[in-house]
UniProtKB/TrEMBL annotation:
Pfam families: DEAD, Helicase_C. The gene is 11427011. InterPro entries: DEAD/DEAH_box_helicase_dom, Ded1/Dbp1_DEADc, Helicase_ATP-bd, Helicase_C-like, P-loop_NTPase, RNA_helicase_DEAD_Q_motif. It comes from Medicago truncatula (Barrel medic). This is RNA helicase. Residues 1-17, 24-34, 567-577 have a biased composition (Low complexity). Belongs to the DEAD box helicase family. DDX3/DED1 subfamily. Residues 1-121, 543-583 are annotated as: Disordered. It catalyses: ATP + H2O = ADP + phosphate + H(+). Residues 557-566 have a biased composition (Basic and acidic residues). GO terms for molecular function: ATP binding; hydrolase activity; mRNA binding; RNA helicase activity. Residues 175-360 form the Helicase ATP-binding domain. Residues 371-538 form the Helicase C-terminal domain.
Length: 613
């Protein structure tokens, strides 16, 4: 298996986080059970050693563990807290050793001021004027500060450790909605903090909710309370890392399962206990079929990159997981769907998974808008390499390519990625690749090497287009443009995150004519300068009503599809409440057919490596 020099360097530098000894509380719990771990519900797990020992949970074992949780036992409280139980340090329950996810950062719990946050480049004032649209009945009002939300002290402490000073707009709106027990379809721009927006309510809900029933002894099936699905292995890993930080010392245990990595290690982690399972669909189906995971206790289901999860590649797998296994149905579980893009067709599909939901669209949040400087250059296929070289030399000369400034180059094919990486390295530009033909180890090493700045150029297929939060990506180059404007939005969203500025350059030629109109519209809405030649391409391609045209006469979708006349289900929950910003947000005009690169891997049979999980 080929491996670039940079990957090898990164491999050798791989972290080896020390594992702290088990806490006193965990040891007490374990002894009490004659070395067998004793289940302690999350809301009791935080009691320190001095606290009274948790009483054995009085589970009603008359029903089997397969019985679904009591209907609405955890909902409808409007965020009300049922007796606390969170907040204290310590830990108990399962084999509950917990590495400190903040170990390699300055863990001072000094409050971060807004000024300090701005010094880090995060400027949330840029988000203040963002139009927000909500629809659905009885939308809970947004909050302005984390302090207004009763998330519990342990979680609040982690928010401080993460140095989050105030909630981003999607968090301000989404967290109260989810804490209110409502299903949610949320659309907010890349880099705007959606991960925390779905993690916080889940963690808080598990900390304070009803205790879960424990599987009988000897049964190796685990029953997580929350499931977070994402389309790629790397994104699942990232969500897992984030969720571990948010849930540190809360007693809530987060486990990740994804394809391409040995399943045995993941099984061992699951056996140690799991409250929140973060997974890619393929690996999850495997675990379900082996009966190592049961979804019967699921209270929270979150789909990150939900439009991708429900597009034609993933939809059958997602339906299987959500509808054909043992997961409680919509209305019993709470479901949250998040993405930066949400085509209407996918919204329609997604509504099958939701019950009485609120649609939330938070305007552009400066990702594909002001914060990302978008440029499109006309470059013939044969000139692309020399053009890229010119850009990289200019970056070097201007000091843009400092140690910390990273460049992410998107190409169409895996072979193309390898060839470009090779050529860049030959030309003294250290590069590595990530795509579906690389082993998982290689993919992870490449990402590490890129993140650390050892290899400041990453050549990627669409497998890296969504969700990845890599600090210091200063420049995204669309060496090959995607065929779908939503993919473009996600790709360029790897820069300009959390209020920071970024640059995105696209190489355009005749092969991309079908993208001309949607690209022009996107750039116009983002107040970017559209070259005259691109407008001419757009005018030509508009005659055929190109598949990538955004719906709504050039205005972006980002609107609840239920507002369209076509929504006529009985018992509609649409009440048209909320603010109406209009004309912003996610895309309409779902292009379809535009998933090159690793997409084909989704339908791969057993044993075939999929780029997506
Ligand atoms: N309240 C906050 N204050 C400061 N930083 C935040 C806050 N919320 C999130 N962030 C940071 O913003 C960055 C982007 O967050 P996140 O990855 O969740 O974005 P996203 O909306 O999911 O993006 P994408 O659509 O690309 O998946 C992360 O580095 C995260 O730590």
């Amino acid at each position: 298996m080929r491996s670039s020099w940079a990957d090898l360097a990164a491999n050798s530098a791989a972290e080896n986080a020390p594992t702290p000894p088990p806490s006193a509380a965990a040891a007490v719990a374990n002894n009490a059970a004659n070395t067998r771990p004793v289940y302690v519900p999350p809301h009791l797990r935080n009691r320190g050693p001095s606290a009274p020992a948790p009483a054995a949970p009085a589970f009603d074992n008359s029903g089997s563990r397969w019985a679904p949780p009591p209907r609405n036992d955890y909902r409808g409280g409007g965020g009300g807290r049922g007796g606390g139980g969170y907040g204290n340090r310590g830990g108990g329950g399962w084999d509950r050793r917990e590495a400190n996810p903040f170990a390699d950062q300055d863990d001072s719990e000094e409050p971060v001021t807004q000024e300090e946050q701005e010094n880090t480049g995060i400027n949330f004032d840029a988000y203040e004027d963002i139009p927000v649209e909500t629809s659905g009945g009885n939308v809970p009002p947004p909050v302005n500060t984390f302090a207004e939300i009763d998330l519990g002290e342990a979680l609040n402490q982690n928010i401080r450790r993460c140095k989050y000073v105030k909630p981003t707009p999607v968090q301000r709106h989404a967290i109260p909605i989810s804490l209110g027990g409502r299903d949610l379809m949320a659309c907010a721009q890349t880099g705007s903090g959606k991960t925390a927006a779905f993690c916080f309510p889940i963690i808080s809900g598990i900390m304070t909710g009803q205790p879960a029933q424990r599987p009988p002894r000897g049964v190796r099936t685990v029953c997580p309370l929350a499931l977070v699905l994402s389309p790629t292995r790397e994104l699942s890993m990232q969500i897992h890392e984030e969720a571990r930080k948010f849930s540190y010392q809360t007693g809530v245990r987060v486990v990740v399962a994804y394809g391409g990595a040995p399943i045995n290690q993941q099984l061992r982690e699951l056996e140690r206990g799991v409250d929140i399972l973060v997974a890619t669909p393929g690996r999850l189906v495997d675990l379900l079929e082996r009966a190592r995971v049961s979804l019967s206790m699921i209270r929270y289901l979150a789909l990150d990159e939900a439009d991708r999860m429900l597009d034609m590649g993933f939809e059958p797998q997602i339906r299987k997981i959500v509808e054909q296994m043992d997961m409680p149905p919509a209305g019993v579980r709470q479901t949250m769907l998040f993405s930066a893009t949400f085509p209407k067709e996918i919204q329609r599909l997604a509504s099958d998974f939701l019950s009485n939901y609120i649609f939330l669209a938070v305007g552009r949040v400066g990702s594909s808008t002001d914060l990302i400087d978008q440029r499109v250059e006309y470059v013939q296929e044969s000139d692309k390499r020399s053009h890229l070289m010119d850009l990289l030399h200019a970056q070097r000369a201007n000091g843009v390519q400092g140690k910390q400034a990273l460049t992410l180059v998107f190409v169409e094919t895996k072979k193309g990625a390898d060839a470009l990486e090779h050529w860049l390295c030959l030309n003294n530009f250290p590069a590595t690749t990530i795509h579906g033909d690389r082993s998982q180890q290689e993919r992870e090493a490449a990402l590490r090497s890129f993140k650390s700045g050892n290899t400041p150029i990453l050549v990627a297929t669409d497998v890296a287009a969504r969700g990845l939060d890599i600090p210091h990506v200063a420049h995204v180059v669309n060496f090959d443009l995607p065929n779908d404007i939503d993919d473009y939005v996600h790709r360029i969203g790897r820069t300009g995150r959390a209020g920071k500025k970024g640059l995105a350059t696209a190489f355009f030629n005749e092969n991309n004519t079908s993208m001309a109109r949607s690209l022009q519209d996107l750039m116009q809405e983002a107040n970017q300068e559209v070259p005259a030649w691109l407008s001419r391409f757009a005018a030509r391609s508009s005659f055929g009503g190109g598949k990538n045209r955004r719906s709504g006469g050039g205005r972006f979708g980002g609107r609840d599809f239920r507002r369209e006349g076509s929504f006529s289900r009985g018992g509609s929950d649409y009440h048209g409440a909320g603010n109406s910003g209009g004309g912003y947000g996610a895309s309409g005009g779902y292009g379809g057919g535009g998933y090159g690169g690793g997409y084909a891997g989704n339908s791969a049979g057993p044993g075939v490596t999929s780029a997506w999980d």
